[in-house]
Structures are given as C-alpha cells and as structure tokens.
Amino acid sequence: MNKSLEGKGIDIFSYLFMTIFSLFCILPFILILSSSVSDEKAVQMTGFVLIPKEISLFAYRVIFQDNAIFNAYKTTIIFTVLGTVLCLILTSAMAYALSVKTFTHRNKIAFFVYFTMLFNGGLIPTYLLITKYLNLTDNILVYILPVMVNPFNMFLLRNFFKQIPESLAESAKMDGANDIYILFKIILPLAKPALATIGLFYGLAFWNEWFTATLYINDKDLFSLQYLIMKVLREVDFANQVNELPGVTLNYVVPTNTAKMATAVVTVGPIIFIYPFLQKYFVKGLVVGAVKG
C-alpha cells in the first residue's frame, strides 16, 4: 500500500529525529577518543575538541608502559567470563526452585534472600571471613565466590520464570523428566532474554570491579583492570603535584587530562563491542522480568 503524504512526513521526521539523537549519543565517545590522542598542552590551551589539533599517544604510552596492563586485562577477562557463567548457573537454579509452586518452603527462603538485600554483616566480618576462614587472599576466586548470587538478579529471573506456562514442566514430568532436565532443556532456552539481561548485569559488575583488589589482592599479576587503571591515574596525579612544587621541573608534560580519557577508552572499549549483541535481549528481559512480583 502506498503511504499517504502525512505518513511519509511522519516517517521522514522519525528517521531525522533518530539520526540526530544517534549523533548526540555518538559524539561523547568521539570526543573521548579524540581527547585521548591529543597533546596535553593543546588540551590545556583549547580544551576538549572533536578533532585533535596535535596528535600524541603519550597518554597511552603511560598506561601501556609495561606488561601490567596486559596481565590486568587477562585477569579481568578470566574472572568476568568465569564469574558470569557460574553466577548465571547458580542464579538460574535458585530462581527456578523459588518459582516452582510445589516447593513447600519457597516463600521462607525467598524472605531470607530478600533480607540480605536490606542488611549485611558489614566490611570487617566480611574481610575476616574471606581472609581468615576462606583463605582467598591473592586468589582469583575472591572476585567470584563472594558474589555468586545477587538477590536482585535472582528475583528478576524468578519473575521471568513465572511467566513461562506451568504446563510445559508438568508435561515433561509426566514423561519422566526431573527438575534439572526441565531447567536446562525447557526453561533456560525460553529465558534467553532474561539470561542476557542478568548476564549483562553480572558481566558489568565483574568488569568494573576494583574494591576487591584493594582489600584482598597483593599479587600484581592478579590486579583487576579497573584497579590498575585507578592506580595509574593516582600516579599521574602525584607526578602532576610534584611538577607544581617550587624548584621542580619535569622534562615532559604530565598527561593528566588525556590519561583520563585514554583510560576510559581502554576500559569501556570491550563493553561497547559486546553490548550491541545483547541489546535486543536486554530491554525485553528487563521489562518482562519486572512485570510480576
């Protein structure tokens, strides 16, 4: 059918609006990337611009000055992937158990899980538990084990499971299937949007982890990427403060502003490439999982 003139006008306006909106979303990333490859003196004189006047990779040389950044990348990727997979398995198992109406104590267990969202033991008991009893100091598992199940993610996934017709599980049980088979062969394949949403939550939490390394990691090879980046920025700020002392002059300009932009590119880059593949599941999983309590 041929669209009316009014319909064509609405389409043109919609495409034009979305194009302008997309440009406004992309411009900050272009500005960060441009500023990260700019010369520090030029940034101090003219500020952040979309097109760098003087190109310099000194900020990246400061970040990649040794192999520490590559070790941090490797460590972060390992515990992010492994942690996300394990968290999804345990969260799915618990969410499925609490979504089954025939499970007698599901409401009591759900209350205890919800209770942990309101109260916790505090930093000192947690530190003693992890260091003295679990002996996870300088162990990559310290990034994963303490956060295996997030209560919010579990409830979000449980609510999604409740939307799946019970007749599917009942018919499978009549054929002799157990709960493990039902979960992995029937429920989880239908819950891809919710799993993508929860997986993105877990993945971002692991990728942005830095506080755990501050408390429990002394081995440089086990530093997380975010912690190492924060450490580099502190060293840059310290060098900048030393340069401002009377009688002290460094033979180079400390890349204070450009280093911050370069760290943003280094840390955010991988997430930007992964997010588009999960975006189509993300909104659907978040909305459906939040419909029913």
UniProtKB/TrEMBL annotation:
Membrane topology term: Multi-pass membrane protein
The organism's superkingdom is given as Bacteria
Keywords for this protein: Cell membrane, Membrane, Transmembrane, Transmembrane helix, Transport
| Keyword Transport carried by entry | yes
Question: Which residues does the UniProt record annotate as the domain ABC transmembrane type-1?
Answer: 73-263
GO CC term (a single one): plasma membrane
Q: Name one Pfam family in it.
A: BPD_transp_1
Q: Which InterPro entries match?
A: MetI-like, MetI-like_sf
Transmembrane stretches, by residue range?
12-33, 76-97, 109-128, 140-161, 182-207, 261-278
GO terms (BP aspect): transmembrane transport
Localization of this protein: Cell membrane
Name the family the entry cites: Belongs to the binding-protein-dependent transport system permease family.
Task: Name the chain's protein.
Answer: Carbohydrate ABC transporter permease
What lineage does the source organism belong to? Bacteria, Bacillati, Bacillota, Bacilli, Bacillales
